Amino acid sequence: MKITCAWCQREGQPASLGERAPLDDAAETHGICRRHTLELLDRLPSRSFPGVRLLLVVSPSESALYEHLQQELAGVSGVKVMLERRRGERRAAPQSVPDEQRRIERRLRQGEVSALGYTVIRFGET
Question: pTM of the predicted model, to two decimals?
Fold first, then answer.
Protein backbone atom coordinates (compact mmCIF):
# COMPACT_ATOMS: atom_id res chain seq x y z
CA MET A 1 0.00 0.00 0.00
CA LYS A 2 1.13 3.50 -0.75
CA ILE A 3 0.97 5.94 2.17
CA THR A 4 0.31 9.62 1.55
CA CYS A 5 -0.06 12.60 3.87
CA ALA A 6 -3.64 13.78 3.41
CA TRP A 7 -2.74 17.27 4.57
CA CYS A 8 0.15 17.65 2.09
CA GLN A 9 -2.10 16.27 -0.62
CA ARG A 10 -4.78 18.87 0.18
CA GLU A 11 -2.13 21.63 -0.01
CA GLY A 12 -0.94 20.38 -3.39
CA GLN A 13 2.49 19.45 -1.97
CA PRO A 14 4.41 16.18 -2.48
CA ALA A 15 2.55 13.77 -0.21
CA SER A 16 4.25 10.38 -0.47
CA LEU A 17 5.26 8.84 2.88
CA GLY A 18 6.41 5.53 1.41
CA GLU A 19 4.87 2.09 1.40
CA ARG A 20 3.85 -0.56 3.90
CA ALA A 21 2.64 -4.13 3.79
CA PRO A 22 1.00 -5.56 1.79
CA LEU A 23 3.48 -4.31 -0.79
CA ASP A 24 1.71 -5.98 -3.71
CA ASP A 25 -1.46 -3.94 -3.03
CA ALA A 26 -1.48 -0.73 -5.11
CA ALA A 27 -4.19 0.89 -2.96
CA GLU A 28 -3.58 4.22 -1.23
CA THR A 29 -3.92 4.85 2.49
CA HIS A 30 -3.44 8.08 4.40
CA GLY A 31 -1.15 9.11 7.21
CA ILE A 32 0.32 12.36 8.48
CA CYS A 33 3.84 13.62 7.82
CA ARG A 34 6.26 14.84 10.50
CA ARG A 35 5.74 18.53 9.62
CA HIS A 36 1.95 18.35 9.94
CA THR A 37 2.23 16.25 13.11
CA LEU A 38 4.36 18.97 14.72
CA GLU A 39 1.97 21.69 13.56
CA LEU A 40 -0.94 19.77 15.07
CA LEU A 41 0.88 19.22 18.36
CA ASP A 42 1.76 22.93 18.55
CA ARG A 43 -1.95 23.76 18.56
CA LEU A 44 -2.73 21.46 21.49
CA PRO A 45 -2.63 22.65 25.10
CA SER A 46 0.11 21.30 27.35
CA ARG A 47 -0.70 18.26 29.47
CA SER A 48 2.31 18.93 31.71
CA PHE A 49 1.50 22.60 32.25
CA PRO A 50 -2.31 23.03 32.19
CA GLY A 51 -3.36 26.63 31.59
CA VAL A 52 0.11 27.65 30.39
CA ARG A 53 0.26 29.14 26.91
CA LEU A 54 3.86 30.37 27.05
CA LEU A 55 6.71 28.57 28.84
CA LEU A 56 10.08 30.29 29.27
CA VAL A 57 12.90 27.87 30.06
CA VAL A 58 16.03 29.52 31.47
CA SER A 59 19.48 27.98 31.74
CA PRO A 60 20.55 27.22 35.35
CA SER A 61 23.67 29.32 34.77
CA GLU A 62 21.42 32.37 34.20
CA SER A 63 19.97 32.63 37.73
CA ALA A 64 19.75 36.45 37.62
CA LEU A 65 17.73 36.28 34.38
CA TYR A 66 15.49 33.61 35.91
CA GLU A 67 14.80 35.75 39.00
CA HIS A 68 14.12 38.82 36.83
CA LEU A 69 11.66 36.97 34.58
CA GLN A 70 9.95 35.40 37.62
CA GLN A 71 9.35 38.83 39.15
CA GLU A 72 8.30 40.58 35.94
CA LEU A 73 5.93 37.85 34.76
CA ALA A 74 4.53 36.77 38.14
CA GLY A 75 1.07 38.25 37.54
CA VAL A 76 0.74 37.34 33.86
CA SER A 77 -1.76 34.54 33.32
CA GLY A 78 -0.78 31.72 30.99
CA VAL A 79 2.97 32.36 31.36
CA LYS A 80 5.36 30.18 33.34
CA VAL A 81 9.10 30.63 33.89
CA MET A 82 11.20 27.63 34.89
CA LEU A 83 14.82 26.58 35.11
CA GLU A 84 16.20 24.04 32.66
CA ARG A 85 16.38 20.68 34.43
CA ARG A 86 18.46 18.74 31.94
CA ARG A 87 22.12 18.58 32.84
CA GLY A 88 23.48 17.16 29.57
CA GLU A 89 23.55 13.86 27.78
CA ARG A 90 22.65 10.89 29.92
CA ARG A 91 25.09 8.60 28.15
CA ALA A 92 28.44 8.89 29.91
CA ALA A 93 30.58 8.18 26.86
CA PRO A 94 29.80 7.83 23.18
CA GLN A 95 29.28 4.21 22.28
CA SER A 96 29.15 2.65 18.87
CA VAL A 97 25.83 0.98 18.27
CA PRO A 98 24.89 -0.96 15.15
CA ASP A 99 21.59 0.86 14.59
CA GLU A 100 20.05 3.87 16.28
CA GLN A 101 16.98 2.70 18.21
CA ARG A 102 15.12 5.98 18.17
CA ARG A 103 13.52 6.74 14.85
CA ILE A 104 12.23 10.23 15.67
CA GLU A 105 12.87 13.03 18.14
CA ARG A 106 11.03 12.24 21.37
CA ARG A 107 10.54 15.83 22.46
CA LEU A 108 7.12 16.81 21.14
CA ARG A 109 7.55 20.55 21.05
CA GLN A 110 10.62 22.36 19.86
CA GLY A 111 11.25 25.70 21.52
CA GLU A 112 12.50 28.91 19.98
CA VAL A 113 15.89 29.82 21.44
CA SER A 114 16.12 33.50 22.29
CA ALA A 115 19.33 35.50 22.11
CA LEU A 116 18.45 36.80 25.58
CA GLY A 117 19.27 33.45 27.19
CA TYR A 118 16.03 31.49 27.40
CA THR A 119 13.92 29.17 25.28
CA VAL A 120 10.29 29.96 24.45
CA ILE A 121 7.78 27.11 24.10
CA ARG A 122 4.25 27.97 22.98
CA PHE A 123 1.15 25.89 23.72
CA GLY A 124 -2.26 26.15 22.10
CA GLU A 125 -3.43 28.34 19.24
CA THR A 126 -1.08 31.11 18.17
Answer: 0.55
